[in-house]
Amino acid sequence: MSSSKIQGGSHSNAGLPASHLLLALAIVAVWGTNFVVIKNCLASFPPFYFATLRYLFVLLPLVFFMPRPKVAWGNLCIYGLATGVGQFGVMYYAVNSQISPGLASLVVQTQVFFTIGFAMLFAKEGLKRYQVVAVGIALLGLVIIALHTDSTTTFLGLALVVFAGLSWGIANTVSRQAGSINMLSYVVWASAFSIPPLLLIALIFEGGVVRLWDVTLAAPMGAWVGVLWQSWANTLFGYAAWGWLLSKHPAALVAPAPLLVPIFGMGASAFFLGEALPPWKVEAASLVIAGLIINLFWPSLQAQVRKFF
Questions:
Q1: Dihedral sign of CA atoms 116, 288, 239, 22 in order
Q2: Is residue 297 part of a domain?
Q3: How many domains is the chain partitioned into structurally?
Q4: Rounded-to-integer distance, Cα 111 and Cα 87, Å
Q5: What pTM was computed for the model?
Q6: Which of 189, 282, 290, 305 is 20 to 30 A off residue 137, Cα-Cα?
Q7: Rounded to an integer, what distance in angstroms lies between the CA atom of residue 202 and that of residue 190?
Q8: Each residue of 94-147: pLDDT tens digit?
Q9: CB atoms closer than 10 angstroms to residue 17
Q10: How far apart are the C-alpha atoms of 283 and 291, rounded to whole Å?
Q11: Full residue range of the structural domain in which residue 262 is found
Q12: What does the alpha-carbon distance between residue 27 and residue 270 come to, in Å, rounded to a whole number?
């Protein structure tokens, strides 16, 4: 999800219709529970080859039916590298052996703060006091996670998923610079730049052509369903439906929905994978989500308070 594509128009500020609310919940449910799918698929595919397959089916066959977005090739390249290699390739590697899926769904939300940082750097946007507070609270949550590393969540895994959040922030920044475009077409065409480096890494570090071919033939049907879920449900449905909602409603009405992604991610991991939810993990999640909420809602909350005083 690219937060830079959040746009508000002259639409009504009324609440979401029931059908639109259900669609928003479906999107975040797909994005959140996707971490369980990732973990299951990694039992059949090595991480960077898995990421290669994901973007191959994002690219094909839609690239033949969607016009290239009117944006520079360099912009598409950076976005494709950032999301394909930096975000998902690295995160798949981390989830494979270095961090639990539920925590990964939470920690990757640090992308919000990296996006703010890049806006300060490139768009000269100032850092507000409440944003400093929000970052500080979220960092406390990450510190709690770092203090509880074990066999299921290592410090390396935490660092790798933070790097994935950084890459997501880069992707948000370059897509913002692309202007008003068809986000679905943008993601499809950018995938062409994700595939070559992911495949090269897989060939070098994950066993070469023979082993990857053997993995391809040996993968069960469930693993291939997971790949298509990554490509079509998580990427194509998620982006297309999210963009449609943003075109119909003000950003402030729709934007809070992704705050539910870590809740779905941690809940699904606990339910389907038996991932433990000890008190420290709930505390860390609460702090990170609190930081995200403050960053998102503080200006509107402050404006509402001023109306009464």
A1: negative
A2: no
A3: 1
A4: 10
A5: 0.84
A6: 305
A7: 19
A8: 999 899 998 898 888 888 778 778 877 876 667 778 878 888 888 898 889 888
A9: 11
A10: 12
A11: 16-110+153-281
A12: 20
